[in-house]
Automatic annotation (TrEMBL):
Keyword Isomerase: yes
Reactions catalysed, as given in the entry: [protein]-peptidylproline (omega=180) = [protein]-peptidylproline (omega=0)
Record InterPro entries: PPIase_dom_sf (IPR046357), PPIase_FKBP_dom (IPR001179), PPIase_FKBP_N (IPR000774), PPIase_FKBP_N_sf (IPR036944)
Name recorded for this polypeptide: Peptidyl-prolyl cis-trans isomerase
Alphabetical list of PANTHER family matching this protein: 39 KDA FK506-BINDING NUCLEAR PROTEIN, FKBP-TYPE PEPTIDYL-PROLYL CIS-TRANS ISOMERASE FKPA
Signal peptide residues on this chain, from the entry's feature table: 1-25
Name of the gene encoding the protein in the UniProt record: fkpA
Any one Gene Ontology BP term: protein folding
Biological classification of the source: Bacteria, Pseudomonadati, Pseudomonadota, Gammaproteobacteria, Enterobacterales
Family listed: Belongs to the FKBP-type PPIase family.
Gene3D superfamilies the UniProt entry points to: 3.10.50.40, Peptidyl-prolyl cis-trans isomerase, FKBP-type, N-terminal domain (1.10.287.460)
Disordered: annotated segments: 253-273
Length: 273
């Protein structure tokens, strides 16, 4: 039976060869160009390809070690390299069973450390978010609703405010409280269109405070956004900051009175019988 380490190495190498979206791709592109003449360094394409796979795998491993260090787990790089060399030479100091058991225990450690960090980050995000909302609420023109939504109307707009069943068209920018931008329809060059009751509660509530042509700032607490779980790009318990411009409101189609009439007349006729 092949060792788990060999299988992992083979799978990673294949992923590189097949151009799979592994995390080291961006880092590879960011590295400075090699100073050595590649034509002189390699006798043929097979040598060059082998080196490229090894370099990519090495960078992937290096990045993995850095990520684990953020969790408080510091692996010995020398032993990592020794494990690779010994695996290729079929001289592993561990049996297949020992490798599997060790990696299973390591995976459990990583998961536990990651969960601990996530919990700590979520608690920190909650505290910082509350402080940010409290500060924003003191700004001139800012209001706080009964749900905890904090907002400031910059331009009211004209006409009627949107209802839950309406489709709205907006331009917006979304950031975390540290100013990190996670979404922006302006830079995409395309407004967003959606039914008002089909988005996070903070938007559904907040956009009812303006009308067509209006602009508003929304500071949305976690329970009106993505809560304790978060989503990619938005950590757990994040307070979200939006600048929203309401471009258009499209009311939901109304039922055709003529279509409903025959059924109403039939019901009335049945009632007389």
């Amino acid at each position: 039976m092949k060792s788990l380490f060999k299988v992992t190495l083979l799978a990673t190498t294949m992923a590189v060869a097949l151009n799979a979206p592994l995390s080291f791709a961006a880092d590879t592109a960011a590295k400075p160009a090699a100073t050595t003449d590649s034509k002189a360094a390699f006798k043929n394409d097979d040598q060059k390809s082998a080196y490229a796979l090894g370099a990519s795998l090495g960078r992937y491993m290096e990045n993995s070690l850095k990520e684990q260090e953020k969790l408080g787990i510091k692996l010995d790089k020398a032993q990592l390299i020794a494990g690779v060399q010994d695996a290729f030479a079929d001289k592993s100091k561990l049996s297949d069973q020992e490798i599997e058991q060790t990696l299973q225990a390591f995976e459990a450690r990583v998961k536990g450390a990651a969960q601990t960090k996530m919990d700590a980050d979520a608690k920190d995000n909650e505290a910082k978010g509350k402080a940010y909302r409290d500060t924003f609420a003191k700004e001139k023109g800012a209001k706080t609703s009964s749900t905890g939504l904090v907002y400031k109307v910059e331009k009211e707009g004209t006409g009627d405010a949107p209802k839950d069943s309406d489709t709205v068209v907006v331009n917006y920018k979304g950031t975390l409280i540290d100013g990190k931008e996670f979404d922006n329809s302006y830079t995409r060059g395309e407004p967003l269109s959606f039914r008002l009751d089909g988005v996070i509660p903070g938007w559904t509530e907040g956009l009812k405070n303006i009308k067509k042509g209006g602009k508003i700032q929304l500071v949305i607490p976690p329970d009106l956004a993505y809560g304790k779980t978060g989503v990619p790009g938005i950590p757990a318990n994040s307070t979200l900051v939006f600048e929203v411009e309401l471009l258009d409101i499209k009311p939901a189609p109304k039922a055709d009175a003529k279509t409903d009439a025959p059924a109403d007349e039939k019901a009335a006729a049945d009632a007389k019988k």
